[in-house]
């Protein structure tokens, strides 16, 4: 029996029309853009056609940005094959931010042109207040940006810890970036603050890498692909309102192992990390469980160059679709035998070079790097008071 309201009996058509209105209201509230100028409001069939489209959109759960993206072609972006290193002077909550000018000078002298700065936002907030800023610490970041300019090194700013997320377990964030609006608001605030701060710097000299190694989508309670996409699209939109041509890097999910084709329309760089196989690159690393087995070998333990090429196929496909790819991290810990590291790294670098992908080795100075790496099986060269791994340097220079 058809329902009656205030004495009016609703026809099936009326009910469909009401359902259509309900769908459209909900979708507009969710953010889908509908151009009413294209609709004949007096034509019920036309109206219901739009409602069907709105309903399909709502069922997809894709939200405002995907709908708007479908209306506009993806921005075309190409990048140089930037090659370089990570500098860790603002990497943890204990960091001092004292970047060494020599690091920039030596990178340039050795033929590199890219530095990634993994940053911890808690270094420049006061008393745990996300919106209270310590200008003194940001002045140290300004100095690093200036050193990049001085030595012709492109500076890539990365949140290794951003409001609501970090892979580093030294501190538990009070909110979840992927689920909590409070964290997302703070995350956008810090990126837009830096976007304003460096607005006058050319995109050829400075870029942004939103957040280091988003975790996997294997635990929906923590993060799903939809959560990740929403955070990325919201932040990219906010940055581009301030700095429209700023180059933005997006780390792949599953700790930068998996591509994000759902974000291909954004006109951003997607960033992978070269740490496979993990048992080789993180052998005996204290922060990794069960990292003392198996004994590293290359090729070995089910991995060889062909296996690496297979792992990188999705990145090749993404690149072939027009999305620039860069490897923002990569390297092997100092407990892996040096000869094995060099054999593995040569295969990795050959693959990257063949695909015209740049890289930033983790790190420049330290246990993964070419200076002061603390390896027991390297014949180091004395270099201005530092221990230089000349073999690894030469391999990277050729790559």
Protein described:
This protein is α/β, with parallel strands linked by helices. The protein has two domains: 4-71, no CATH class; 83-398, TIM Barrel (Alpha-Beta Barrel), CATH 3.20.20. Helices cover 39% and strands 16% of the residues. The strands form four sheets. An eight-stranded parallel beta barrel has the order 3-4-7-9-10-11-12-13. Strands 1-2 form a two-stranded antiparallel sheet. Helix 12 links the parallel strand 12 and strand 13. The termini are far apart. The model is unreliable at 1-71 (pLDDT under 50).
Q: What is the element layout, followed by pairings?
A:
Layout: E1 4-5, E2 8-9, H1 12-30, H2 44-60, H3 63-71, E3 83-86, H4 101-109, E4 114-120, E5 125-126, E6 129-133, H5 135-151, E7 154-162, E8 165-166, H6 181-197, E9 206-209, H7 225-242, E10 248-251, H8 253-256, E11 269-274, H9 278-281, H10 305-311, H11 313-320, E12 325-330, H12 338-354, E13 358-361, E14 381-383, E15 386-388, H13 390-398
Parallel strand pairs: 3-4, 3-13, 4-7, 7-9, 9-10, 10-11, 11-12, 12-13
Antiparallel strand pairs: 1-2, 5-6, 7-8, 14-15
Round the mean pLDDT to the nearest integer and report it. 87
For the biggest sheet, the summary is: 8 strands, parallel, barrel
| CATH-level-4 superfamily name of the largest domain | Glycosidases
CATH topology type of the largest domain: TIM Barrel
Molecular shape: globular
CATH class of the largest domain: Alpha Beta
User: Low-confidence spans: pLDDT under 50, at least 5 residues?
Assistant: 1-71
The secondary structure category is: alpha/beta
Q: How many beta-strand segments?
A: 15
Beta-strand fraction estimate: 15-25%
Enumerate the strands of the largest sheet in spatial order, edge to edge or round the barrel. Answer: 3-4-7-9-10-11-12-13
End-to-end Cα distance: 75 Å
Number of domains: 2
The count of helical stretches stands at 13
Question: Judging by the overall fold, what is the CATH architecture of the largest domain?
Answer: Alpha-Beta Barrel
